[in-house]
Amino acid sequence: MTQNTEIANTQQLSFQDFKNEVLKDYRTARISRECSLLGRREVLTGKAKFGIFGDGKEVPQLAMAKAFQNGDFRSGYYRDQTFMMAIGKLTPQQFFAGLYAHTDIDIEPMSAGRQMGGHFATHSLDENGNWKNLTAQKNSSSDISPTAGQMPRLLGLAQASKIYRNVEGLEKHTNFSINGNEVAWGTIGNASTSEGLFFETINAAGVLQVPMIMNVWDDEYGISVHARHQTTKESISEILKGFQRENESNGYEIFVVNGWDYVQLVDTYNKASQIAREQHIPVLIHVKELTQPQGHSTSGSHERYKSKERLEWEQEFDCIAQMRKWILEFELENEDGETLKFIDSEEDLINIEKEAKKEVSKAKRDAWSAYTDEIKNEVSEAITLLDSIAQKSNNGSFITKYKNDLAAIAEPIRKDILVAARKSLRYLKDEDFTEKVTLQNFIKSSINKAAVKYSAHLLSETELATENIAAEAPTYASEKNIVDARIIMRDNFEAILAKHPEVLIFGEDAGYIGDVNQGLEGLQEKFGELRVSDTGIREATILGQGIGMAMRGLRPIAEIQYLDYLLYALQIMSDDLATLRYRTFGKQKAPLIIRTRGHRLEGIWHSGSPMGGIINNVRGIHVLVPRNMTKAAGFYNTLLEGDDPGLVVECLNGYRLKEELPTNLGEFKTSIGVVETIKEGNDITIVSYGSTLRIVEEAAKDLAQVGIDVEIVDAQSLLPFDINHDTVKSVAKTNRLLVVDEDVPGGASAYLLQEIVENQNGYKHLDSKPQTLTAKAHRPAYGTDGDYFSKPSAEDIFEKVYEIMHEANPAKFKSLY
Fold first, then answer.
1. Where are the annotated coiled coils located (predicted)?
2. Integer Cα distance of 193 and 176 in angstroms
């Protein structure tokens, strides 16, 4: 529904205050537009790699900024520069620092140059990695480029407010919420609403009834593709009309507003904010009739796909042009009969526009100087060093050429410095003098500095880094209490929930029935539906709930029912969660715990073994593969004391096996990144994990009967793997290595082999070729026979080990075949 508004309803301000606010907004819009225009030129001249800007969306973002309050969160996309400027979180110089990829977090606070421009973030953590008071600042979760990828996280950011308002025990968490009054604001382009993540999130937010405001910036195109090819009825608000709340039913409040109408926008955003903030009702704002003056990005021109009529319309209805026209034409008669105006003449606006150009031009120059001066100093140091080396080296002419080539580069980058230095070093391989050592140290120092600039903060580097948390063994009663292993999980989760009011567990079937394996049996009844809850079948937004809530100080445990279903959420895990700390240079975190189960499952779709794909897509998340429920419970306890995200893969066929119930539930801890030798042996080391270990143990008993003594190492943790390098100690003893895995060939087994043979230098100790034994290249066929002929069996393991020993001692171990 379109909202009609009178000026008097926009704000309860004096006319002078209103006038000042309007002109300030116009100035912000002009500054943002000038940044876009000048930013495009910087890309086209080669000073920046790529540009994607927010021109054409300035005015609605000004309105959104007015309704955005301290404690609120934005989860948006790469057009929101005006909004960030309006809330005071982005300066023009910072805008250009991002465009140039300046690697100083103080100068480029969005990502320290790790993301292209247009990706915005605020700092949730201080210099020590501790939470700041998020209610005292305006917050933006760090953007990602994948279209609609910001949507799942948005759901969690909004749900956190509902949790803080309604869950007892969180009253002291005042750094994160004030009675759940915070709104999560999402932004997206109209074309990206075609993505499944958008619809999944919209549906979930309507079910959960959380304070989320979804803003759709609609300029009728998705790159070059018109809305008629994107959206049914060419309108997202039209096709979502069924979500409109009626007669107190759950649903959305839906607004449609023209993106060039400043007054209408301000009124709409104020109304939307009040509804979401006070009533915790989600809102959709469809902002239509927007433009994209420079096209989608610097990679193309919109004149190629827009008609002459469309381009003429865009020029007239450019939101800044319409705001300018409104300011010029505005007149209001007060009670005394005086005519009130925003400006005396057009010259006033022209002056604002000129000042905006000057400010942006200066910001661009200052940003470029800050970026290049630092590098030029390093260039000068390298040239001086190479010059002194050239004078002493027998190959001085070659080194002089590299020095001169470096000096001739008008706009050098650090790559140019190291290319010259490293190539010069090659000519010194047969020479020894002091300057050579200086050059070696210069190169090493430069690479070490680059490691901080480009590789730091993949995981926590604070005192809460999960790898630093010491193990604590389970304790047991004097009289053994043997139970189904699921009881250990259930009782440990109960201890966790009782100890930590900020912990929430949710997923498909996780609530009422206590998960499909009864690991949460009865816990919803004890702790309530908000802390132990069921969700719809929507894995991506289950992950998103967890990410968003973890970013606001809660400790969610998001359950994905089976490991294979993780593929539905893998993009969100990989692009958002795994990169969050890295892409913010350690200024944001989401210590989400993901719970799932797999291993040794029977059938194509429940094979439970895509580990190679997972571990190579989620660097930045711990991947933990416990062999039993006691180990798994210990991992949950460890993760909750740290501040890194983690994935725990429980053994599906282990819930009914018997284990002894510990007495220190919620307290014992399994170390992350530490292997465990579960059987000593002398002839060969077998490394495996999860349920496959039980098959390895079975095979080891059979091998012992023919005189082969196997040592079994449980990896326990794939990311990271064996930080103490204990596996190589086993290989040094046995001189042989077999990695057994139920993943496809070249998957997790290949990763483990590289870790042991290459990174741990295990090759030095091998008397036989290191080998892997994996599942077949396909997924397992259904049924027990399908499993037997698809994945490594005890017989497969026996024969593989026997074959290795036959090669080593054919006289003792005669060939089986």
1. none
2. 30
The secondary structure of 413-475 as a DSSP string is -HHHHHHHHHHHHHTTTT---HHHHHHHHHHHHHHHHHHHHHHTTSS--STT-GGGSPPB---
Other CB atoms within a 10 A radius of the CB of residue 545 amount to 33
CB distance 496 to 636 below 8 Å: yes
pLDDT band at 780 (very low <50, low <70, confident <90, very high): confident
CA distance 610 to 601: 12
**Do residues 52 and 135 both lie within one domain?**
yes
pLDDT digits (tens, 9 = 90+) for 310-363: 889 999 999 999 999 999 999 988 888 888 999 999 999 999 999 999 999 999
**How many CB atoms within 10 Å of residue 454?**
13
CA 145/CA 118 separation, integer angstroms:
9
Looking at residue 753, its amino acid is L
Q: Are strands 658-660 and 482-484 parallel, antiparallel or unpaired?
A: antiparallel
What type of residue is 615?
Answer: I
> 3-state SS of 320-345?
HHHHHHHHHHCCEECCCCCEECCCCC
DSSP 557: E
* 441: in domain: yes
Q: Which is catalytic among the residues 606, 622, 725, 806?
A: 606
Same domain for 196 and 99, yes or no, is yes
User: Residue 21 corresponds to which tokens in the numbers above?
Assistant: 């606010």
Q: b/e map of 256-266 (b: 16 or more CB within 10 Å)?
A: bbbbbbbbbbb
Answer yes or no: do 445 and 472 share one domain: no
Stretch 732-755: mean pLDDT, rounded? 96
Q: How many domains does the chain have?
A: 4
**Range of the structural domain that residue 440 is part of:** 373-455
Instruction: Tell whether the torsion through CA atoms of 143, 144, 147 and 153 is positive or negative.
Output: negative
Listed in order, strand segments (DSSP E) in 681-807 are 684-688, 710-714, 717-719, 737-740, 771-773
Report the distance separating Cα 416 and Cα 428, nearest Å: 19
Q: For 665-697, write each residue's pLDDT tens digit.
A: 999 999 999 999 999 999 999 999 999 999 999
Cis peptide before 720 (omega within 30 of 0): yes
- Measure the CA–CA gap between 191 and 685, rounded to whole angstroms: 54
* Single pTM value for the model: 0.95
Average pLDDT rounded to a whole number, residues 139-163: 97
Please tell me whether residues 93 and 223 are part of one structural domain: yes
CA distance 36 to 84: 14
Gyration radius of the chain's alpha carbons: 31
184 in Cβ contact with 212 (< 8 Å): yes
Model confidence pLDDT, tens digit, residues 617-644: 999 999 999 999 999 999 999 999 999 9
Check residue 132 and report its DSSP letter.
P
Residue range 733-742: average pLDDT?
97
pLDDT band at 303 (very low <50, low <70, confident <90, very high): confident
In a domain, 508, yes or no: yes
Q: CA 117, CA 32: separation in Å to the nearest integer?
A: 13
Catalytic annotation present for 606:
yes
**Calpha distance 309→320 (Å, rounded):** 19
Asked whether residue 330 falls in the same domain as residue 378, the answer is no
Q: Give the C-alpha separation, 19 to 31, whole Å.
A: 18
CA-based end-to-end distance of the chain: 78
Q: Provide the pairing of β-strand 139-140 with 225-226.
A: unpaired
Which pLDDT score is estimated for 607?
A: 63
Question: Using CA atoms, how far apart are residues 741 and 719, in angstroms rounded to an integer?
Answer: 15
| Single-letter residue type at 35 | C
* CA atoms of 87 and 300, how far apart (whole Å): 31
